[in-house]
Amino acid sequence: MSTVAHQPEIPYDPLADGERLAESGVKKNYAKVGGARPSSLLYTYGPGAIMDLPHFTVMPLGLDSWDPIWRRRDGIPTINAPRLLEVVRMMLGHQVAELRPFPHQPNLTSFSREGSDLGVPARVFPQWMRCTGCDRLGPISIFSYHNTNPYRPDEAQFFHQDCRGRRGRNKGKRKQPVVTARYLLACADGHLDEFPYDWWVHGGGSCSAAPDAPVLTMDDRTSGRGASAIIGCSSCDARRPMNEAQGQAGRAKLPRCRGRLPHLDGFANGGCVREARLMLVGASNLWFPALQSIIDMPRFDPAEQVRDRADLIKAALGDDLSEFADQPKFLRALLRGKVDVTEIDDDDLARTVAVALAPEESDEDREQRRADWEPIDLLVPEWRYLLRDPARERHQDLRSGLTLSPRAVDESMPDGVSRVLAVDRLRKVNSIIGFTRIDELDRINDVSSRLVPLTSVRPAWALATEDRGEGIFLQLDEIAVAAWEDRVSHSALWEAHRTSHLRNFERRFSETAEVADPESRLKPPRYWLLHTLAHILIRQMAMHSGYGAASLSERIYAWPDGGDGRPPAAGLLICTTASDSDGTLGGLVRLSKPELLAGIVRDALHQASRCSSDPVCARRTPVDPEDFLHGAACHCCVMASETSCERANRFLDRRFLLNVGGESLGFFGEAHVW
Question: What is the pTM assigned to this prediction?
Answer without folding.
Answer: 0.87
